[in-house]
Amino acid sequence: MSLRRFFRRRYWDAERVQEFETHIQNEIDDNLARGMTREEARRQAYLKFGNPIRVREEIWKMNSIAPFENFLRDVRYAWRTLLRNPGYALVAVLTLGLGIGANTAIFTVINGVLLKPLPYAQQDRIVHLDQTAALAGPDAIGLSVQEFQDFRDQTYVFSDVAEYHSMNFTLLGTKNPERVATGVVSANFFDVLGVKPVLGRLFMPADESKNAPPVLLLSYAYWMKEFGGDRGIVGRAFELNDRVHTVVGVLPSLPEYPDANEVYMPTTSCPYRASPKMIADRDMRMITAYARLKPGADVQQANTELATIFSRRAAAWPKSYPASAGFAPQIAPVDRELTHAARPTFLTLLGAAGLVLLLACANLANLALSRQMRRAREMAIRMATGASAWNILRQLLTESMLVALAGGVLGLVIAAFGSKLLIAYAARMTPLSGEIRVDGRVLLFGLGISMLTGILFGALPGYVASRVRMTSLTDAGERMAGSESGTRLRNALVAAQVMFSFVLLMCAGLMLRSLYNLLSVDPGFKTANVLSMQVSLNWTKYKEKPAKTAFFRQVLERVEALPGVDSASFSWMVPLNSDMGRMSGDLMFEGQPIHPDQPPPQVDYEVATPDYFHVLGVPVLAGRVFTDRDTLDTPGVAIVNERLAKHYWPNDNPVGHRVSTDKGKTWITVAGVVSDVHQYGLSKEAEDAIYLPVYQFDVANTHLLLRTSRDPMRLANQVAAVIHAIDPQQPVTDVRTLDQLRSAQLGTPKVTAILLGLFAVVALFITVVGVSGTLALSVARRAKEIGIRIALGATKERILGNVLMRGMAPVLAGLVVGAVAAVFATRVLANLLFAVGPNDRLTFVGIAALLLLVALIGCLIPARRAVRVDPMKALRTE
Fold it and tell me: What pLDDT shows up at residue 477?
């Protein structure tokens, strides 16, 4: 039977009625012509053709599809039932809409970040190659050019290996001088990634030859931002490092990986990478590598081959690879590199949103169960008139599915807006945030979760309704219907709600404690009223140290003369700037020899001008700070932090001791000790650090720091104008206050804590409503019993205690189960927490007490109604 005939049954019915009446009338006329009376003629005509009602029923049945007919009948009945109960329908749709919306919004992010394929050809075959040294910590230390060549020439599991590192250079030829992030890559880099340009071409091997004309590739984002998508950009020339570079192509819109570069150049165009010293020195590590696995090869085989290469290296160059340093290869698939920071956070949030939805389902199931108990007589009548248990179950499931689908539509609307708000949040953890959007997979997820939700909260009430007894046809039977089993089911649902709430509240409580701990961290410096801006000098224009020193002195002199500027300083690093990598290196201590098999200690380096510690408000614990007299013509000096001083001079004053930054070739004297600074993040411990004066140390990549007496951002343009007056071609970029950098450090944990907190508040509210509603129904059903007890002399206190005990029993059961579940559930938060354990006892006790208190308040409302029951009215209703 076709759907076309099914939906045109009324048309076919009307046509057959007309046809049947025509045949009857013709037969009557023929019978009259034969001499019959009109009554007899009519009777004989109907005897020949049959009962018209039965014929129409048979035709209607022939054009019907029974399952579809039953489904439409159930939908129409469910729709009418929900319209008669608009309060229940509205609450159910809103509750499910919020739950489904939260889940779908987070799934939208997970879909864009974790599930969508990367825009690279055969992404599963692309890997990132690097190395680690246990002494330097778990982070990768990079590769030298020599080490990269080992990978390229000695491996057989890779079809191709490409080189990469990123630096900042001054670009001339645009509206204003710009400091652009530049990816320095081998000619085959984009071939390894499997990327095709949107304009022009990619790099070719000829571009990487020593005397090749300098060329550039533009990133898609930079092309759109700076040149408005001008398709004539290919062939334009720009000046970079005092050399004219020609744009040969524009890359497609890709995730900003490995870094957010604006332009790309071949390795031979980078003055630092192309220097003979960099190429020849095996210990100068600043690059990384990407490779494409050959067909049939896997990461395990690559690890085995790299381990063999490392063993050959250690044997050939023992000084570069001391056994105690723990050098080891590091290989990771690119897709994991892109998502490793975001994966645990968003999977945790999805789990939390899922718990909220389960909690909503339990609450709605409780609510639907209450409605079902009130509809017991209706169900008994339907079963008495021929409805089967399956018909009843199907009907109630249809009602729940209708509510769930309506909630799903609302949820998709919420998800569409919510996912947009989460894009900036995701961008803090992964460059794939640009892939987040509502697509077909998200819509299917929303539909699927809506249908699953409808089944979850509709199955239990439907099952109870399908087992209703005929005694429900009487008033007493209706009150007794499902009284015992229904109460047990409702209590079980309340316990489940408390369990889900406990787990959510524990997760939210731990994240809030972690955030509080982060907010309480003393960074070691004062962030208020401090402005930072990047002022990195042109590599070629400021080759000589005197030129750099003259520039620094002029800028500081003029900037400090500006109204509102208290002090200013140049430095290599900016504290809490997460965009900058760690600057560390070897350090030797006079009088503390190092065993030949031991590598020298690793410390963090910072280079600064004299007022650096005053600008940041870092306390000086001993000795002095730098002065303008600490120049190339005076003995070298350094300042160490308190942590380093305690490690290497635990029982002595470090001032006056000497250290070497170049493996003992020259020695510099410690002039002072300052307190520790959290250089790389609030959640990271301060490391051993040494500070060197700018005027004695050659540095070009610098930041200008200013302490002001008013809003620092208002002075940004004036400071930039001063710098441009000294050097019109000097870019000023990355203008931010230290307060903004601190806020950025707290951004991700703060949003995570807020989201989990919102989920927990919703869960707590739903749980209180569920506990209170369950107890209220129990009190209403026990009104006669309570009235009899009061009539027989039971005190109000006894009645109150009895009702509260009944209401709190499922709460206590849920707390016990929830505590056990939380022990395992909170372990997934371990990597997201700071200074608090996943099973923190204080948080456990606090959350349990909060849930008990709130549940007790929820129980007091119906309990107070119980003690006000009038015995005479309760008995008269019988």
Answer: 43
**Whole-number percent of the chain with pLDDT over 70:** 91
Residue 838 has pLDDT above 70, yes or no: yes
Cis previous bond, 344, omega within 30: no
CB 425 within 8 A of CB 751: yes
Give buried/exposed letters for 661-684 (b at 16+ CB in 10 A, else e): beeeeeebebbbbbbbbbbbebbe
Greater confidence (810 vs 136) lies with 810
Task: Give me the helices (H) in 34-170, please.
Answer: 38-49, 52-62, 66-84, 86-110, 145-154
Report the greatest alpha carbon distance in the chain. Answer: 142
- Considering 222-236, 326-340, 461-475, the range whose residues carry the highest mean pLDDT is 222-236
For residues 762 and 356, is the Cβ–Cβ distance under 8 A? Answer: yes
Q: 507 and 348 in contact (C-beta within 8 Å)?
A: yes
Nearest to 402 by CA among 364, 465, 458, 445: 458
CB 759 within 8 A of CB 418: no
The more confident residue out of 378 and 697 is 697
Alpha helices (H) in 531-676, listed in sequence order: 545-560, 612-616, 642-648
- Token reading at 674: 């300052």
* Residue of higher predicted confidence among 379 and 183: 183
Predicted confidence (pLDDT) at residue 197 exceeds the cutoff of 90: yes
**Structure token digits, residue 189:** 């880099």
Q: CA distances (Å), 282 to each of 132, 142, 146, 277, 311, in order?
A: 15, 11, 5, 10, 15
**Per-residue pLDDT at 468 exceeds 70:** no
* Inter-residue contact 817 to 499 (CB < 8 Å): yes
DSSP state of 36: -
Task: Give the C-alpha separation, 699 to 537, whole Å.
Answer: 9
User: Which helix (H) or strand (E) is 569 found in, with range?
Assistant: strand 565-571
Phi, psi (degrees; rounded to nearest 5) at 586: -75, 155
Per DSSP, the three-state class of 233 is: coil
What's the rounded Cα separation, in Å, for the pair 13 and 62? 11
Q: Are 774 and 491 in contact (CB under 8 A)?
A: yes
Q: Which among 666, 675, 676, 685 is positioned nearest to 619, based on CA atoms?
A: 675
